[in-house]
Task: structure prediction
Amino acid sequence: MIIEDFDGKTFVAFLDISGFKELMKEGKAADAMDRFYQAGYEYHETHHEVEGIFISDCGILFVRTGYSIEQKLNTILRVIKYINRSMIDYDFMLTTSIAFGQFVYRNKIEIRGISKNAIYGNAYVDAFMNNENGLPKLQPGQCRLVKEYLPKELNLNHQLFDEFKFLKPKGNDKKHLYYYWNLNNFEDISEFEKEYNDSYKWKFQGMLTALKKTYNNSITN
Result:
């Protein structure tokens, strides 16, 4: 389906398959991309207000229509939840950044062997840069909303949009709101964060144990 030209202010999300290089080494990259593209296609089949461009292990989503700024945000959160949950069912994780601002998509003239499609605007740049180089670094499975440039009229306490309940600050990070797409009850956020953080402690402890074990063996030998 051809994406029509777009030029306006909206929410843009940049999604990236976590650990893609490792998946390539394990021969799982093609399956991950298939699942990724399929999830985006399935959602768009019934929700035409969100459109996306998928390239390799990345996806760019934007909201074309919406009666209010709250509806636009709620819409993009819902598609992000759907795609992330679809991927996690097959043991694939994503990182996702969302930003608000100007976004432009242009269908360009195609010449033999070359297709030109222009994607630009501060919303796209902010979402992309936040996903790739934002601090603190995004961890697998995490999704966050960049607070800078959010419109002043956005009401995140709006009672009609349930997804807003799953947008919360995290620790000392004052630049983002994190979206807990994996939870069905927002009251479980604290417990989930503890379990998620503990998993990184176990990973660190495992690496420390492996290093000490091999180091001790080299001394005795």
Summary: The chain has two domains: 6-182, 189-221. DSSP finds five helices and eight strands in the chain. Residues 189-220 form the longest helix (32 residues). The radius of gyration is 20 Å.
